Amino acid sequence: MSSSLRAHPRTRWWALAVIALTQLVVVLDGTIVSIALPRAQQSLDLSDGQRQWVVTAYALAFGALLLLGGRLSDYVGRKRIFMIGMVGFGAASLYGGFAQQGWELILARGLQGAFAALLAPAALALLTVTFPSGRDRNTAFAVFGIVAGTGAAVGLLLGGVLTEFADWRWCLFVNLFFVAVGLVGGALFLSESRADGDTHYDVWGTITVTLGLGALVYGFSLAENGWGQPLTIAFLALGAALLGAFVWIESRVAHPLLPPRIVADRVRGGAFLIQGVAGAIMIGATMYLTFHLQFVLGMGAFTAGLATLPLPIATMVVAPLATRLLPVIGPRPMLIVGPLLAAAGMLYLSGITPDGAYFLQVAPALVILGVGMALVFVPLQNLALTGIASEDAGVASAVANSAMQIGGSIGLSVFTAVYAASVGGHAQRDVTAQQLTDAYGWTFIVAAIFLVGASVIAVCMVRGSKDELMPAHGELAVAAH
């Protein structure tokens, strides 16, 4: 059983606001610097490869350390880890804002990701134990899912505003506001909870999964130089071998970092895979959209940020409707249709031309993409955590977050490789607007293929009746499996 202090019914909605704010900041930080990258690249004299790593360093550190962060929150205390993560995240943001060289910015982004890996699973675990069952749980998870789904797009808009009217460095300094609100709100409204019983740490599991994910993502990042390069193959093989070792270790240790029961469930495993695809789209594909808006269409950072608004607006408009529909039809139809709609949006976007009108070629695609992603995000978080034992809430929450961040890292690396292959490995300044547009179009086509794959995953893995997939309105298990 989990020993937790339940939030008072009148304060738990304030707790939801604090938790949603936390999710917003860790998700938007995956993209807030994307729209500022052209300015940051010029200011710090970054190469094209270093430019990608400003985004990848955050997502990689975040995704690779999430499992450890989730287990720490279960054992040390979810509120305590939440507060530690907040302070560290703020310090890393401050350091990045004052960076004078490219490596300093990349290091700061990695540190941000590491502390976000403490914050995110602690926040989602606190949400899980604060809203254990019933209609309120569905509402809370819908709110959380909407924030998770639109946070990346909000990051693009906020990044555009700050870059245009202040300085790209404020894309990092702005986090201090979120940290201050999170610390005060956390102290006032969050209740401590932790897992009871034995709290041994899985050292070898932590080492293998962290290094394995790191090697895998780094291998994908090297693929822009060619999939057949020895170093690319070596890192991809090393990552796969280390992750295989991690699976072997987890099946044999007494206190695994990732208990096999969490991912062994077919439905939950499918939800995690779909979440990975969602991360690839919202983190990876949206970055190349902002490049098209700025480098080809000639928009400033603020205008480019505004130009991404149809995506989050469409998601936020459709999400309440999807939330009401979820108990009626269940999650499976949404997770089949949603990715297909989103894929249609990406295919529409792949038809961009250098002189094409934004309102004809881009805006409609973003609306279609936003509608599709709303149908994905509303059921996804709830489905991923349904039936989880309360003592596993932190690590299960970490898997859900990790799937999105690692999906984002791998997706960005794959899209970068597709882009590099399309422009023949030439630097951006050496290619024409038509070549850039063609390259971005190919990344959007690959993104559409990813989304069709997510729909197939839903067909094959998210199986069962509505009541089987959402027992007792998404009730949280209170005993160990």
Automatic annotation (TrEMBL):
The chain crosses the membrane at residues 12-37, 52-69, 81-98, 110-129, 141-162, 168-191, 203-221, 227-249, 270-289, 295-322, 334-352, 358-378, 399-420, 440-462. It is found in: Cell membrane. The keyword Ion transport does not apply. Residues 15-466 form the Major facilitator superfamily (MFS) profile domain. It is a multi-pass membrane protein. It comes from the Bacteria. Keywords: Cell membrane, Membrane, Transmembrane, Transmembrane helix, Transport. This is MFS transporter. The lineage of its organism: Bacteria, Bacillati, Actinomycetota, Actinomycetes, Micrococcales.
